[in-house]
Amino acid sequence: MVVLTFVLATPVSRRITRPLKELRELSLTSHRIAEGDLNARAPVITGGEVGQLASAYNEMLDTLQATQDQLVQRENLASLGQLAAGVAHELNNPLATVLLYADIMLRELSDDDPRRSDLEIIMLETNRCKTTVASLLDFARQHQVEAQEMDLNALIESIIETEKRHDAYDEIDIQMV
To answer: Which of 158, 154, 67 is nearest to 120 (CA)?
Structure first.
C-alpha cells in the first residue's frame, strides 16, 4: 500500500509542483525586469496555463522593448534636430554678411570688370550654402522630405562653370553636348 501510494503520489505531486516552480521562475523574471533588465524572459516549459502566461508575458516584454527602442530613437532624432537648428542659426549670420558685401561690391563694379564673374560665383555659392542651412532648419523642424523635380543639365552646367575656374582644369576642354 505504501509503495502504491508512493507510485501514485509522485506523478501527482510533480504535476502540482511543476507549475508552481514555473510561477516562481516567472516571479524571478519579474524581479529582474523591475531592476531594469528588459532583456529578461520567462522560461516557457509547458503548454498549460502557466506556459501561456509566460508566453504572454514574454510578448508583453517584446512590445515594451520595441517601444523603448522607438522612444530612444525619437529622443536621438530630437537632439539631432536641435543641434542642426543651432548650427544652421550660427551659419546663417556669416553667410548673410558675405552675401551682403559681395552684392555691394558687385554693384560698385563696372559691367566689364573681370572680378565681376568671381563675385557672381561668390554670391551663387553663398546662396547655395544658405539653401543648405535652410534645409538643416527644415530637418530640425522635422518636416517630411518631399521629392522634387530638378533640371540635371542646369546642375551639371553650374558645376562645370564653377570647377573650370580651378587651375587644375586649365588644360582641359570641357564641352557640353
So the answer is: 158
**Residue 162 CB neighbours (<10 A):** 13
Burial of 116 (0-12, 13-18, 19+ CB in 10 A): middle
pTM, to two decimals: 0.46
DSSP 50-77: HHHHHHHHHHHHHHHHHHHHHHHHHHHH
Residue ranges of the alpha helices (H) in the chain? Answer: 2-34, 49-108, 115-140, 152-163
pLDDT tens, 40-49? Answer: 777 777 667 7
Q: What is the pLDDT of residues 154-167, one digit of tens each?
A: 888 888 888 777 77
Q: How is residue 76 written as a grid cell?
A: 536621438
